[in-house]
Design goal:
Elements: H1 8-12, H2 14-17, E1 23-30, H3 51-66, E2 70-73, H4 81-87, E3 92-93, E4 99-100, E5 108-115, H5 140-144, E6 150-151, E7 154-155, H6 161-166, H7 177-180, H8 189-193, H9 212-215, H10 219-223, H11 227-233, H12 243-254
Antiparallel strand pairs: 1-5, 2-5, 3-4, 6-7
Length: 256
């Protein structure tokens, strides 16, 4: 993830990224499927259409309806998304290092609108420090992580199944396969374990729902996945981040 080392100045100075920025609007949209059927082989966020495409359309529509001028982002630029979400009062940083929205958890995409005008009012963080401990004695996310990647409010990406199955290039570590438990793209175990995760108030956007074709995939289907079927299943999907070769690597490790 060398991209995190680039554009450091822009990350910490929004006006260098978007000249004239005077305020930042932070937003969150849920991908929590609630009681909807899901494909267990994929992390929740990757069940439907690529969130980059979906959120960009929604953000531009929102900007137009509010008469805002500026730029919108969702994991597409050097933006400290969790920091700005905390500053805007959306939530706090949990022990698993993700933003937790009280009563709703962490199954959210974050997005930002950089605007070139002042707002009429500004929100405040719900806790005084970005790294203050709001989780108390709860360790459920740590206990749910099968590889021990979470400890002391830190995440070791080298042991994180989400990183290994999506961002990592090359062979998986020999120990990784036995922890996949047939979920070979991403991992939701830490966020699913969080007591803040709730579904009863959530109505997921239809774009993020799993298709019937995806839901019908079985273990034997995955093991025989062809490049053609991969293209049919994941056209316009975030799963393409791992590419066909990466997904085949993951499948082989998961079902070994």
């Amino acid at each position: 993830m060398g991209y995190l080392e680039r554009h450091t100045e822009e990350r910490f100075s929004p006006s260098l990224l978007v000249a004239g920025t005077k305020a930042i609007i932070s937003l969150a949209i849920s991908y929590n499927p609630g009681s909807l059927p899901t494909q267990e082989a994929l992390a929740w966020y990757a069940q439907g259409t690529d969130y980059h495409t979906v959120l960009r359309k929604k953000l531009l529509k929102l900007m137009q309806s509010l008469g805002l001028e500026g730029r919108a982002f969702t994991d597409t630029a050097p933006v400290l998304e969790k920091y700005w979400a905390w500053r805007c009062g959306l939530g706090f940083i949990g022990r698993h290092t993700q933003l937790v929205i009280p009563g709703f958890g962490s199954a959210y995409f974050l997005a930002e609108i950089f605007v070139n005008q002042q707002c009429d009012s500004y929100d405040s963080p719900i806790n005084p420090s970005f790294l203050s401990d709001e989780c108390g004695s709860c360790r459920l996310c740590e206990e749910a992580c099968p590889t021990g990647a979470i400890a002391n409010h830190c995440l070791d990406a080298r042991r994180c199944l989400s990183y290994l199955t999506i961002e990592h290039r090359g062979e998986l570590p020999p120990w990784a396969g036995r922890h996949l438990q047939k979920c070979f793209y991403g991992c939701d175990r830490c966020l699913r374990a969080c007591p803040h995760l709730r579904a009863e108030k959530i109505q997921i956007s239809f774009e993020f729902r799993a298709s019937d074709r995806l839901l019908a995939m079985t273990e034997s289907d995955w093991l025989s996945l062809s490049r053609e079927r991969y293209g049919q299943l994941f056209r316009g999907s975030a799963v393409r981040r791992a590419k066909y070769e990466g997904l085949r690597r993951n499948i082989a490790a998961a079902f070994n």
